[in-house]
Each structure stands twice: as C-alpha cells, then as structure tokens.
C-alpha cells in the first residue's frame, strides 16, 4: 500500500498541478495524522460524512472506507476531475464543485436522511477558517460533530475556556453551540507545501441545545463582539460602543443590577454572565 506522500507526489506529477496559494492549499501527507482525524471523528458505516475541501482526496479515500457515504465539497475546479477519476468506482461518493459558504447543507443532509448520523470533516484553509466554522454552527445543522484541522493559534482560541487568557470572541461563540476539544498537534512538515505555521486538529461536539439560555442571539453575539474588538477597554466602555444604547448609564445600571464590575474586561466574563447581560439588555429594549 502506497503512502499519502507517494500518492500526493504522483497525483501532482500526473496532473501537472501545484497548490493554489490563493485558496490556502496545503496537501496533508502524514498517514498518522490522517488516522488521528479518522479516529477522532469516530466514523461508522451508517454515517454521512460532509468533507470540506478534499483537495487531492488523501483524507477522502480513508473516509470512503469507513463511512456510509461521503459528500465532498471542493471549490478548486482543478481538483474535480482528479477526484472523479480517483473515486469513480465508489458508489458512496458524491462531489460538489462549490464554495462551502454558499452551499445549502440542510438540503444535503435532508437528501441523505437514510444515514444515522452526520459528521463534518475538513482541512480548512487558514484564511477562511472562522467564517466556515461559524457558518457550520450558526446554520444549526442536524449534525453530531465537526472535526477540522486549523491553524494552531486558532485552535488555541477555539478550545480555550471562556474567561481564560487565550479566549476571544470565537471562544464564546463556539462554546455556545459546541463543546470543543483538541485532538492532535500537526507539524508544518506534514504538508506539501509546508505552511509557515503549525496546525492542530480539533473536534467540536455539537450540543443538543445552546450552553446558555439567550432571549435574543443577535444582541448576545453583538455584545460579545463589542467586548473583544478593543480588548483593553473596560466592559462598560466596550458595551457602550456596541451601538445598542446611546446612553452609557443604561449599560452601567444593567451591570450594577447583575453585580458585574464595570471596570472588568470582557475577556474575564463567563458565557453565563454575557447571557445575563444580553437578556437584561433585551428586556430593557422591549420596555
């Protein structure tokens, strides 16, 4: 059996192509990491797998062996012919040439409702990691988990606990929808071409319901975003710049009612505290 490195080099030579820098392509060539991804995703024969950015199909080939069906979504036109040729004998493979941010994932899942569970697997391009992850979560898909490879710095933020030093707006947003965990660190030399930074595989176990009760999600996420746009500002000043209220005293009164120090920074708050602020803001608006 040939290795992923040998397969990748063969395909690049055969089709006379190279990685597209604009699309953030880096081809994974480490079999151990591929196995780590497969194991972390806990793929079974009655699972539907949605793979984002299959590229040359290195991970896809392993997914097809384990899953009931793989629907692969690939933006790069050059990869479509390669993937179709490589997996033409598989009856559990479907390929879409499209931008993941524009795909109706609900339709894909509904069209394949004979499968027991839906799991998303991806090696995400660094430049568009956050929008893709947030789309997958905000769409409230009938999916169980998202196992993805991302830049290590992003992995640190996503898997941090709200209120920790490494936490950011995405920490709180992801934690609302899912329980995030680290799987394995991936050295930059595990790719062709090697990126300038290391990566990490993470898994998001999607919650059946959000981790906190929020009356108005739009206000909730707006407050979180405002708190992290200027991290050095106090919570009072950050929330006052959210544009929800012109009068700073209203925010001040809300923080006092919740017994939250107005001088604290947003990054020190728990998700529950943001939820309480959001719900009280929503209540105040509705008066």
Feature tags:
two-stranded antiparallel sheet, elongated, seven-stranded mixed beta sheet, 287 residues, 42% helix, alpha/beta
Please describe what this structure looks like.
With 287 residues, the protein is an alpha/beta fold. Helices cover 42% and strands 18% of the residues. The strands form 2 sheets. A 7-stranded mixed sheet has the order 4-3-2-5-6-9-7, sandwiched between helices. It has a two-stranded antiparallel sheet with strand order 1-8. The chain is elongated. The mean pLDDT is 92.
Cα-atom radius of gyration: 21 Å
Look at the helices and sheets and give the structural class.
alpha/beta
What average pLDDT do the residues reach? Answer: 92
The geometry reads as elongated
Q: Tell me the series of helices and strands, N- to C-terminal.
A: HEHEHEHEHEHEHHEEEHHHH
Would you report the number of β strands? 9
Note the topology:
Blueprint: H1 4-14, E1 27-28, H2 31-41, E2 47-52, H3 58-66, E3 69-74, H4 77-86, E4 93-97, H5 105-111, E5 117-123, H6 129-138, E6 145-151, H7 152-159, H8 169-177, E7 178-186, E8 191-192, E9 199-206, H9 217-229, H10 235-240, H11 248-257, H12 271-286
Parallel strand pairs: 2-3, 2-5, 3-4, 5-6
Antiparallel strand pairs: 1-8, 6-9, 7-9
Helix pairs in contact: 6-8, 9-12
């Amino acid at each position: 059996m040939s290795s992923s490195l040998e397969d990748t080099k063969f395909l690049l030579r055969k089709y006379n192509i190279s990685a597209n820098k604009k699309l953030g392509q880096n081809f994974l060539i480490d079999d151990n990491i591929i196995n780590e991804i497969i194991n972390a995703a806990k793929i079974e024969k009655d699972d539907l797998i949605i793979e984002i950015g299959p590229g040359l199909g290195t991970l896809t080939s392993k997914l097809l062996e384990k899953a009931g069906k793989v629907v692969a979504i690939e933006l790069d036109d050059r990869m479509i012919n390669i993937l179709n040729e490589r997996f033409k004998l598989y009856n559990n493979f479907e390929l879409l040439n499209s931008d993941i941010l524009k795909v109706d994932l609900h339709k894909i899942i509904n069209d394949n409702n004979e499968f027991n569970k839906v799991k998303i697997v991806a090696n995400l391009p660094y430049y568009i990691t956050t929008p893709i992850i947030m789309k997958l979560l905000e769409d409230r898909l009938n999916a169980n988990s998202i196992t993805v490879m991302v830049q290590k710095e992003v992995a640190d933020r996503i898997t941090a606990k709200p209120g920790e030093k490494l936490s950011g707006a995405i920490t709180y947003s992801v934690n609302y929808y899912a329980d995030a965990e680290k799987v394995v660190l991936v050295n930059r030399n595990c790719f062709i071409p090697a990126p300038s930074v290391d990566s990490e595989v993470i898994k998001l176990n999607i919650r059946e319901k959000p981790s906190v009760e929020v009356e108005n999600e739009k206000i909730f996420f707006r407050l979180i975003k405002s708190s992290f746009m200027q991290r050095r500002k106090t919570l009072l000043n950050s929330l006052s710049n959210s544009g929800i209220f012109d009068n700073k005293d209203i925010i001040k009164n809300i923080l006092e009612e919740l017994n939250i120090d107005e001088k604290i920074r947003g990054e020190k708050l728990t998700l529950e505290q943001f939820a309480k602020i959001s719900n009280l803001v929503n209540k105040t608006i509705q008066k």
